[in-house]
Amino acid sequence: MCLTSQQPERPSPAEARPLAELALVALSLPVAALALALMVGVGALRGGDPGLVVALPFGLYLLLAFALRRSAAAGPITAGVSVAVITAFPLYFPGERADALARGLDVIGRPFGVGSLGGLGRSLDGLLPAVSAGRRLEETQPLAAVAAPVSVPAPKPIHEDGVDHVVLPYEGMGSALHVPVELEGPDGAVAEVTMIFDTGASFTTLDMATLRALGVRVPNDAPEVRVHTAAGERSSRLVMLPRLWLGGLLVEGVTVGVCDACATDQDAGLLGLNVSGRFLTTVDQARREIVLRPRQGPDDRLADVRYWVALSATATAWPDGHTEAVVTVQNNAPRDIIEATVELRCDEVRTVKLGRIGAGERGQREVKLPSGIDCDPYEVALSAARW
Question: Are 280 and 295 in contact (CB under 8 A)?
Fold first, then answer.
């Protein structure tokens, strides 16, 4: 018997090529999964429709896979696109990649019965490449947020006798005073942060990461204002913070601008005049303390309410010479307005007071003006309001 040895057949180059291509595609899948998780996560964090948030990114990758299904470069191209998405994400959404990756992995893993992957997402973020979103603002660059000019009544005088007060320690010098603040979100989540006590800021600002930690959502129809910062002018959406504490002093219903550029590595944002203006403020530089005393009298919250209302009026002149006007206040805030005072400006200024206006509701008041009043043209302006 003659024994012969047979060498195993080697795959021809034509057969080996598909295996190499499949290996490259397989290697690109983890990177593609991370890019998909980022896109799904940022959509979920911003309150997008759940179905579209998941379907659109997967649809884009399916289109890419269909277009490259016979290409030897399918794996490298898919990996390149995914790496570009991951790397450029911080440029377009500064400070949000870790949270977006954590949320996206949770959303993708949920149908497969996978537990929370938030911790994994945040750990992976530190290992991924990123394009710098720009130099962080230094303490020596004081920030200021300025909204459209508005007529704000002079604050009530301070009555020293028996007035409660708090003493806040501060760090820093000049206009950049860093003070401790406690924040509470709509579901009871609490965050203790440091903020810049900025008397040049019209309203308070917080960065997106802090608002997410508090469970504060930014609706698509949130009011927008233009904000001037040391980094330039930009648009800022407004949200409502239920509660804020300065020491033992509670402030409810605080209008907050979403502004990542107004935050630093040390500070979550700016403590603006809609909060600080409610107190008589004394800065004791020797002790490095800020003393806050609440103002006495009705608690006018015009600085917070004015961003959430839409005003209108109709005026009808009757043949007997008198004029009837109907003033309308639309409350777009997520909380009730207890009282609103509107000025109807014709050739004279008339004050119109409206009672409680529920969240998302409309209040109206009819006013009869004396004969001879000319209301062509006329203006309406909010002059005082309370939550």
Answer: yes
CA distances from 368 to 265, 314, 316, 348, 354 (A): 56, 12, 10, 13, 15
Q: How many residues belong to the chain?
A: 387
3-state secondary structure of 76: helix
Question: Are 361 and 242 members of one domain?
Answer: no
Residue 381: domain span: 304-386
Rounded to whole angstroms, what are the CA distances from 202 to 85, 273, 331? 36, 5, 21
Mean pLDDT by 10 residues, the chain (387 residues): 52 54 69 82 71 76 70 74 84 75 79 67 76 39 35 43 73 80 93 89 90 91 77 80 91 92 89 89 87 83 92 78 82 93 82 91 85 73 91
Residue 141 CB neighbour total at 10 angstroms: 12
User: Taking the alpha carbons of 170, 172, 174, 175 in that order, is the dihedral positive or negative?
Assistant: negative
**H/E stretch holding 71:** none
Task: Please indicate, yes or no, if residue 157 is contained in any of the structural domains.
Answer: no
Residue 382: in which H helix or E strand, if any? strand 379-386
Q: Which of 108, 125, 142 is the last residue of a domain?
A: 125
The count of structural domains within the chain is 3
Q: Can you tell me the distance from the alpha carbon of 171 to that of 180, in angstroms, rounded to the nearest whole number?
A: 10
- Say which DSSP state 112 is in: G
CATH code where residue 188 lies: 2.40.70.10
Paired residues of 310 in beta bridges: 330
232-246 and 249-258 beta bridge pairing: antiparallel
